[in-house]
Amino acid sequence: MVSQLSHGKVQLIGGPMDVPVIGRRIAFVTDTVGTVIELSGPLTSSPGEQGPDNSRGTPR
Length: 60
Known about the structure:
Elements: H1 2-7, E1 11-19, E2 24-30, E3 36-42
């Protein structure tokens, strides 16, 4: 999503970066008047890889 926004001339000011402690991937952009907007989505895990909630790909 961030790459699509960048091609649309949205200013990326931070990220994207993984934040494993909270199990999220985040990025920051600004709108035309300078408002900072946080974009956030879940980290994805490979099959069998331990996720941020200590499960193995199984929802709680």
